Amino acid sequence: MDIVIIGGGIGGLCAAITLQKQGFSVNVYETSPTFQPVGAGIGIGSNAMQALMNIGVGEKVFANGNVLHTQIFLNAKGRTLNSIDFSVLKERFGQENITIHRADLHQTFLEALKPTTVHYNKKCVNVEQNGDKVTAYFEDETEVTADLLIAADGIHSPIRKKLVPNSAPRYSGYTCWRGITENKGKVDEFTSTEIWSSTGRFGMAPMRNGQIYWFACINAREKDPFYQHLERKEIANLYKHFPDIVPATIRDTPTEFILHHDIMDIKPLHNFTFGRIVLLGDAAHATTPNMGQGAGQAIEDAIVLGNAFQQFDEVEKVLTYYEEKRIARTTKVINLSRQIGAAAQLCSRSLASARDFLFPLIPSKLLLWRLKFLFDVKQK
Hints:
By secondary structure, this protein is α/β, with parallel strands linked by helices. It has helices at residues 10-21, 46-54, 58-63, 87-93, 102-111, 158-163, 225-228, 232-238, 245-251, 282-285, 294-311, 315-344, 349-358, 364-370, 372-375; strands at 2-6, 25-29, 41-44, 66-68, 70-75, 80-85, 97-101, 118-119, 124-130, 133-138, 143-146, 148-151, 170-182, 191-197, 200-206, 211-219, 258-265, 273-274, 277-279. It has a single domain, classed as FAD/NAD(P)-binding domain.
């Protein structure tokens, strides 16, 4: 089979690795003119680490990452509300949660592919199906025909919009800055932290080589012009009522390492496959980042789809299996992540106070149990 992948992000590259290892002819078409080592830190859960080990890149990803043993939740005064012990995951499932720079993960995937796999500066503008073939048309007036097309072109996927016209991204109600800076002893090497307040939310996690990754979310109108071009000192000022480490971390971050986006997801879809076109990653199930599962679910997609080809000879059975394994699971992630975000972003002082009173009453083991479905997963 000839397989075309539209989108050279985490999901698209991981799918390419999986399918190439099985002997398929795979070509990836990416809009960007070159590989650009940009982005911030991301979390890779033990579920995704299990999948990466299965395709032979897990060890290198792990070597470039930083292990997280604990996550703690604080209120705006720095009082601990609750915690999750991630070390249990290693004991139970054999892998750990890690943080890693997105560019390092991306580079690891690129190095695992054949040198001519990825084609840059190729913006897909249309796709058409004709029987068992799919043709992708590009902005440079070239085209390519394959037996299967994997649309891994992100939350704003033009291919998904063509197949499911009402699947536009939906705004979460909050906007977010993300950054990377030097740790300087601010954060414990193995602990991620979230601080919740009625005026916003801040999170930080250690990374490899003495860096930390942080995010700062605040409720706002979609595309609110006030927040679009704030300088770091202005961002820090939004969090002046938080523990001192928060505004200090923001101010210490070089401007070029700060990114800003409104937080979006898509309403869960009922189908991921349409003839010989398959949606994968954010194109299929973009989620808010509250569970740290955006990359993880894209990686799972890639491994499940690739492994399905080992189990079934007919493409139709492969695609049916892929949908059966992925739709319900990713729907649960989208919905739960949105619920977590709504609770963490409460702006009513009375509701936030009630949350902060009740949250410490929930046993830490129960919090981890609530996430058990994420980690107790088989890719076949």
